[in-house]
Each structure stands twice: as structure tokens, then as C-alpha cells.
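Key result, reporting period 2: structure in, sequence out.
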């Protein structure tokens, strides 16, 4: 039995996920970043996370060759940031406030948390690549998360 891409997307859309912006540096030193909802923890010892990046993504070459990256966990107030970092062929960082992590990656202002990683392993995942990151540093802030559900952004209700 085979499942069509539309059926698969429809069922996966029923699983809400948090929204992140993953940032790194390109080979030329430029800031690179993209919206990523395919993110999860893998291991506590050693501390590992994974992200899944579509092979056709503009940031794909930077993420698969950089020494590391930062995961910015977006707050409910940052839907426009999520949308901006999903747009193709723009300077995604223009007008966006950020500071630098200890390894020089962009850390966006007002995020719920930051996870700074060293690229640990890369695995093929069909039309995506699975990138494992070993966590080197974290930062936690208060707030409510931005969620992705059924093809759109949502917020938790209290």
C-alpha cells in the first residue's frame, strides 16, 4: 500500500509542532537562516537534537557544510519572523534584530530559547537531509510558543 504525498501531508498536519528558525554562517561568512518545524530532541547523553532540511532549500548548502548552527525557538508573537524566514530570494535578516552566539551564529531577539549546536552527523532522508547537532550551549526565556498546525500558525490557549 502506498500513501500519496497529499495524504501524508494531511495526516502529518494533524500533529502540531513548535516553530524554529535555524541560523548558521555560509562559506562566505554570510548569515543564513530558515524556518524549520521538523526539529526534535534525540538524546540527553550526549545532548543531541535533529533537524530535517529539504535538499532544495536555499540554506541547504550552508547547513550541511557549516561546523554548526543555532536553533531559535519562536514565541507566539513571532509569526511574522517565521513567515519571513520561509520566503525565498530575500535578505531574511534585513530589519530583524539579533545578537551573536558564542560561535557567531545569529540569535534572534525575543525568542523562547536558543540551542547552539555543533554539526554531529548527517543522514539521507529521502527528499530531506537529517542533520544531528550536538548541543554546546542553551538559553531559556519565558513566554508562549508559536505552533504550526494543519498548514498554518497557531498559538496555545491558556
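The corresponding designed sequence is given below.
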Amino acid at each position: 500500500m502506498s500513501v500519496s504525498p497529499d495524504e501524508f501531508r494531511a495526516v502529518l498536519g494533524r500533529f502540531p509542532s513548535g516553530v524554529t528558525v535555524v541560523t548558521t554562517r555560509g562559506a562566505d561568512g554570510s548569515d543564513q537562516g530558515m524556518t524549520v518545524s521538523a526539529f526534535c530532541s534525540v538524546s540527553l547523553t550526549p545532548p543531541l537534537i535533529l533537524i530535517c532540511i529539504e535538499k532544495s532549500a536555499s540554506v541547504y548548502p550552508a547547513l550541511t557544510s557549516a561546523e554548526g548552527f543555532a536553533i531559535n525557538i519562536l514565541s507566539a508573537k513571532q509569526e511574522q519572523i517565521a513567515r519571513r524566514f520561509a520566503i525565498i530570494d530575500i535578505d531574511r535578516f534585513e530589519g530583524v534584530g539579533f545578537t551573536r552566539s558564542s560561535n557567531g551564529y545569529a540569535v534572534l531577539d525575543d525568542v523562547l530559547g536558543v540551542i547552539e549546536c555543533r554539526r554531529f552527523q548527517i543522514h539521507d532522508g529521502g527528499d530531506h537531509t537529517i542533520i544531528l547537532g550536538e548541543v554546546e550551549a542553551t538559553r531559556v526565556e519565558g513566554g508562549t510558543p508559536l505552533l504550526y498546525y494543519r498548514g498554518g500558525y497557531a498559538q496555545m490557549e491558556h
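The chain has a mean pLDDT of 94. The first strand starts at residue 17 and ends at 18. This case is discussed further under Risks and Mitigation.
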